[in-house]
Amino acid sequence: MTSQPGPHRARQPRPGRRIVIVGGGTAGWMTAAALSRFCDTDWSITLVESDAIGTVGVGEATIPMIRNFNAALGIDEAEFIAATNGTYKLGIEFVGWGAPDSRYLHAFGLVGRGLGLLPFQHYWLRARAEGLAGPIGDYVLNAVACRENRFAHVERQAGSPLPPLPFAYHFDAGLYAAYLRRYAEARGVVRVEGRIDRVETQGETGHVAAVRLENGQSVAGDLFVDCSGFRGLLIAETLRTGWTDWSHWLPCDRAIAVPCEPGEPWLPYTRATAREAGWQWRIPLQNRLGNGHVFCSAHIDEDTACDVLLTSLDGAPTAEPRLLRFTTGMRRQAWNRNVVAIGLSSGFLEPLESTSIHLIQTGIDRLLDYLPVSGFGAADRENFNRRAAWEMERIRDFIILHYHANGREGQPFWDALRHMAIPDTLAEKLAMFRAGGKVVRDHDELFDVPGWVQVMLGQGIEPQAWHPLADQLSREQLGQFLDTVRNAYARDVARMPDHQDYVSRLAEQGRRKLEAAA
Q: Which residues are known catalytic residues?
C-alpha cells in the first residue's frame, strides 16, 4: 500500500456527520489524515487554519507507536523518511540526571531476557552484587545499537532467542504535517484558509454550531475537533473547560528552540542533557539538529537560558531562537459537549520522553472509537475523558520520576524536586522497586517494565534485594546466562550497518519514489 493519493473522493455527508477540525499543524493534519482514511464518504471533513498563525513545531522525536499510525495510513517508509528529513530513533540518552557526570540510555525494547518466571533485572541485580554483571545497557539490544551507531530493520524468525529492535523516528514536524495534508486533501478533506473571528454556539445546548472567519465565511459542523494548540480556542476560550495544573510537580514553564547545522554522525537516539534549571534536547535530522532548552523561569531568566542553549550547540544556528511559554497539566475534559480536544489543546506534558505526538495519536484513536452514532451521549464522553486522563496521569508520573530521582545536589531547582511530595501512584512504584526490584505495569499504561527499570537504575535508585527465585541459579549458571545475553546482542549489532549510511540509502530510494509520483 502506498502513500500516494488515489482519485479524489467527493464527500456527501449524512446528517450529523460533518466534522470540522480547527487548527492545522501536526495535530490537525494527523487527525484529518486518519479521519479521511477511516471515515467513509458519508462524512465530511473540513480543516480550518490560517497561514498567519504559526505552529509550535518542535515535536520532532517520537516513540515506536508512530509506526502503527503511519502503517494504518499505508505510508511508505522510504518516502516518509525522504519527505521529512527523518532519521531513526532507538531510545533517549540522559546526561547528568542521576548526577552531573552520569549518563544512561532509556532504550526501546526489552531489558535482557526473562528466565523462568522472572524478568531479567532480578538476575542482573544478583549478578551485579556478585561482581558478574556489566552495565544494564550491555543487555539491552537497542542500547548496544545506540552505542555503536548502528541500525537495521530486524526481522526475527519465530522462536528466535534474540529480541526485536523496536524503533521510532526523528523528523521535521512541519514537513510531516505538510505530507499528511497532501494525503488528507487527496482523500476529500477540505482545507479552509482564514483566521477565526467568532465561534457560534447553540443557545439551548451550548454546543459549537459554527466558526466564522474574518472574511465573513461560516463553517458549520456537528463535531468539532480542537487542534488550536495551547490557546484551546474551542475547548477553553469558548466552552470554558477547566484545567488541572501539574506545575507543582513539573515546574518547567518555558522552552527555547533553535535548529543548528547537522552534526556527524547522525546518532540513532535523542539526547536530553540536564542543565541548572531544566534540560536541553538534541534531535538529529538529515539536514539539521533540532535543539531546545526546557527550563523553569523561577530559577533562570529567559536571556540566560537562551545563552545556555546557544553556547552548547554542535554547530552554527540556522534560525533565530523561538520562545515557548506553557503550563504543564491537562483539560478537565478532553471532550466537552460536541468538541474534542486533540494535541496541545487537550493538555501539555513537556517533551522529555517524546510523548507529544503519541498523545495526538492516542487522542485520534479514541476519537475514532467514540465517533458519535446519534447525538453526543454523556456515557461516551465520560468514558472518553476517563481514559484520556488516566493515560496522561501515568505518563506524568514517568516524567516526574526523572526530575524527582536526581542526584544534582546543591542546585536549588533540583534540590526542590528531589524533596517534593510526589503522586501516590509514583510513590508506590518507587517503593516496590527499592524494596525488591519489582515493577508492575498498571493495565495498559504507556511505559512498560523495561522503561521503568532503565530509568530508575539510570537515576540511581538502588533496589535493596531481588526476587528470591533468582537465587536458584548457581553462580556459574548465572554468569553464563548473562554472558550469553550480552555476547548475543553484541554479535547481532555488529552485523548491522552504520545508521547514517542506512538512512542515506533509504532516503535516496524515497526521493526517487516521490519524484516518480510527482
A: 89
